[in-house]
Hints:
Pathway: Amino-sugar metabolism; N-acetylneuraminate degradation; D-fructose 6-phosphate from N-acetylneuraminate: step 5/5. By secondary structure, this protein is α/β, with parallel strands linked by helices.
Amino acid sequence: MNIHTFENEQELNEAGAGIITGLVQMQPGAVLGLATGGTPVGIYEELVKAYKKGRVSFKKSTTFNLDEYVGLPEDHVESYHAYMKQHLFDHIDIPAGQIHIPDGNAPDLIEECKRYNKELEKAKQIDLQILGLGHNGHIGFNEPDHSLVSGTHLVELKQETREANARFFASIDEVPTHALTMGVGTILKAKSILLVVRGEDKAEIVHRALTGPIQTEIPATLLQTHPHLVVLLDAAAGRYFK
Ligand SMILES: O=P(O)(O)OC[C@H]1O[C@](O)(CO)[C@@H](O)[C@@H]1O
């Protein structure tokens, strides 16, 4: 595990984007696992800048998003479909057919999970999985539980997750109660993982996740078992690592 702490958010963003562009430059057909939420926004901004400067092309890349809310229309500004377009896909050259995001509006959500798993199987392996971290230790939307699911599945969001994400909605009542998420088995199967964590409010959980006992009640502790984990922390999130 390689942990890097940054005093400056911009340096963190550039480092994160540099890891992604470095991979895509060397391996244009790379399969990228993408995250949403507040954490990766600055990294996506740097990716867009790199693309606009002609430093990288995503024409041959494939992407798989970690998760999507259930029941939020795709064009709702807080759906992860809309988020990805707004922050990345509308500004780079990736062909639409190479983008994969679970469909939280599918008529049969269990079938949709199976379909997503099949797409992941076809891609064989994610080369680089980008992850944020929930305050309760969730990765993707794999919430703390006495057991965890390996593949894509339907989850009920914990109240604390809905509260944390309420900042993006007009009120907590608008935050969906369920989501589809890639499972921890798929996440851990990625060749490399890039975990990004920002803010004082996540300092304790990221420290527990990376140094505490491995337990499904803190799903991110499973990342300790991954052979190629890179962690980027801002100074506030990294305070217990100093
Ligand atoms: O980056 P945020 O908004 O703090 O969210 C933490 C994590 O939880 C999620 O919202 C759930 O997948 C992710 O998008 C994010 O990585």
